Amino acid sequence: MNPIDILLAGATLGGLYGLTAMGLTLQYGVARIMNLSYGEFLIAPAFLTYVLVSQFGWSPLWVLGVVMPLGFVLQWGIYQLLLTPLVRRTGAGPALEVDSILATFGLLFVVQGLMLVQFGGNYHSYDYLSVPVNILGSTVAANRLLVLLFAVLVGGGLYLLLTRTRMGTVVRAVSVAPRFAPLVGIHVRQTSALAYGIGGALVAVCGVLVSMFLPFSASMGTMFAMKALIVVIMGGVGNLMGCLVAGLLLGFAETLVASFVDPGLTLAVNYALFLLVLLFRPTGLFGRVGR
Amino acid sequence: MSRRELLGWGLGLVALLGLALLPRWIEGDYVLSLLISVLMYSVLATAWALFSGPTRYISLATVAFFGVGAYCTAVLGEVLPWAGVLAVALVVGVVMALIVGLATLRLSGVYFVIFSFGLAELTKQLFTWYEVNITKDIGRYVFVDVTQQDIYWQLLALLALVLGLRALINRTRLGLALRVIGEDETVAVHVGINTTVVKVLLFALSAAFITVAGAIMAPRWTYIDPSIAFAPTISFQTLIMALLGGPGALLGPVLGAVPLVLLFEYLSASFPNHFSILLGLVFMVIVYLVPNGLVGLLRRKGGGR
Questions:
Q1: DSSP 3-state of B57
Q2: Nearest to B151 by CA among B266, B255, B61, B43
Q3: Does residue B134 sit within a domain?
Q4: Contacts of B129 in chain A (CB under 8 A)
Q5: Residues contacting B7, CB < 8 A, separation 6+
Q6: Cβ-based interface (< 8 Å): residues of A facing B
Q7: Collapsing DSSP states into helix, strand and coil, what is residue A30?
Q8: Which of A183, A190, A247, A282 counts the highest number of beta carbons within 10 A?
Q9: Contact B293/B248 with Cβ under 8 angstroms?
């Protein structure tokens, strides 16, 4: 493999991981919900895209436009219906973390089970823009480039949304100081629901992007959630730029191992990186000391 | 030891004796295999609660240890005597738990949960990779001369051991330290408890029991591959049972295991395709409606502590 190949493949994968992790860091950093079912809500839109593209002839780009608001409403609703009772019960204290882990773990099995019943355990994929494109002597499929482009666009858009708008400031305020945010008139629970919903929209987009260039199966969600969690911890909880850098790091590490050692060992690489971070920088690559 | 505790130990011994003699009277393999399932999940849930009950750290890695134990039997079953196999399983489980524990338990609980969430998948992929690339054969046959009744007695002994150990730990300074950590970790540090040592120790102990349970159960399958040995539903069911009963109480996990093994047996036989959906729903009902477990419910009804 030549270096350009690895650069492009790593950047695509890394950009996707970064984007996935951004949604999770919003859900965990702002809404304080450790969402273990996150990966299932990445695979579900991937299946939706598969059905719409292969049976109804839609373009995945149209699906992208439909899925984004759908993901937002769905996760916003999950927060309001399923998670608000837990927030009330625990008073948003430390017990919320345990309870939300348990509740979303249950949700994981329900959603995964539904997909297994519907689509079985096999890998699915469809053909979209798989024409080869030549860049600096390296051949890539056009769909991968599109994924990379979208990862950059959506990630950049989210960054601007959070740093340049009033809504973004409110969301960051809740993330940094949830107990003091109400003092300046911020409705913490509504803001949490909003952040949780935005996370949902992001993960839905990621699902569509995954379906464009990777074969996927109903039981793959856990793996994506796991990788997103690792990236979030590596980048530092609530840190969007950290997500992007850590995501790229993971993407490149996986690509290197897959092309030079063995594709079967990519998850082990994830774990090795995670362990190194835990041992030497437990607050994340750019984290401040202490939380 | 107070009179109440003596009574408890006595009753426990009688129950143990009764259960040990039970296979003499029951007929049919189905009932025995059901009893084995009940015992297996009782051991797993109690061992899980040994660590997670007092500390309130949710471990999602039960099946990682269980599967490793099963593989110990599959690989070494024909080479070593049975006691040797179990000893190896014990050591492997403890070493694995020490590595995981030392890396994650120094930090806050979330890291531990995340790590344990993926640990099963990681071990499964590593085993798959090894089997595909090195042995060139994904499955293994388990040829060990162990009957159903042997499995039953061994699991029963393991259950008695883990319950007895838990009761003993509750009496010692270690048990007190664990309860303080569970209530408030900052306080625990300030009163001079070395929280990392206590947590890692207990995690390793809990993992040892789970690994040995896996080794004992392996002969029941006769054929194993990574997706059987590391089935995520085993972790999940263990968690549900411990939570239903109440992980804080000594007999809570057993109380949860008995009805749920029967329920899941019925569900998986009647709705094999929808099993994981039903499992998830049962679990969510428990999280929302019985947050303190059956034991907590009984205590509140009885107006006790």
A1: coil
A2: B43
A3: yes
A4: 262, 264-265, 268
A5: none
A6: 34, 36, 85-86, 89, 97-99, 101-103, 105-114, 116-117, 222-223, 225-226, 229-230, 233, 262, 264-265, 267-268, 270-271, 274-275, 278-279, 282, 291
A7: coil
A8: A247
A9: yes
Domain assignment of residue B137, yes or no: yes
Closest CA to B232 of A187, A106, A186: A106
d(CA A286, CA B10): 57
CB contact (8 A) between residue A291 and residue B115: no
| Residue B78 φ/ψ, nearest 5 degrees | -90, -15
* Interatomic CA distance for residues A94 and B299, integer angstroms: 24
Of A224, A202, A206, which Cα lies nearest the Cα of A71? A202
What is the block-wise mean pLDDT of chain A (291 residues), using blocks of 10 residues?
78 89 89 88 92 85 89 92 85 78 89 89 80 73 83 88 88 84 86 91 91 87 88 82 87 86 80 80 63 37
- CA atoms of B44 and B50, how far apart (whole Å): 10
B53 found inside a domain? yes
Count chain A–chain B contacts defined by CB atoms under 8 A: 112
Q: What ipTM did this prediction achieve?
A: 0.80
Pairing relationship of beta strands B140-141 and A138-141 according to DSSP bridges: unpaired
Higher pLDDT, B65 or B273: B65
Specify the residue for token string 């608000």.
A84
The C-alpha angle B163, B165, B169, rounded to 5 degrees, equals 120
Range of the domain at B163: 15-234
Helix (H, G, I), strand (E, B) or coil at A135: strand
Nearest CA to A243 out of A191, A192, A289, A286 is that of: A286
Q: Which tokens hold the place of B178?
A: 């664990």
Q: Which residue type is seen at B90?
A: L
Q: Would the CB atoms of B121 and A275 count as touching at under 8 Å?
A: no
Residue at B198 is within a domain: yes
Nearest CB among B111, B125, B277 relative to A267 is that of B125
Query: A4 with A137: CB under 8 angstroms?
Result: yes
Which residues does A227 contact at the CB level (< 8 Å), separation at least 6? Answer: A17, A20, A21, A250, A270
> Are residues B128 and A264, on separate chains, in Cβ contact within 8 Å?
yes
Instruction: Tell me the C-alpha distance between A219 and A43, whole Å.
Output: 9
Query: What angle separates helix B252-270 from helix B293-302, to the nearest 10 degrees?
Result: 120
Considering the entire predicted model, what is its pTM?
Answer: 0.86
CA dist B159 and B39 (Å) reads 7
Report the domain count for chain B.
1
**Nearest chain B residue to A121, by CA:** B273
Give the count of beta carbons closer than 10 Å to the beta carbon of residue B291: 18
Contacts A234 to B, Cβ<8 Å: none
| H-run or E-run covering B224 | strand B223-224
Cβ neighbours for A218, distance < 8 A, ≥ 6 positions apart: A43, A47, A112, A115, A116, A118, A119, A120, A121
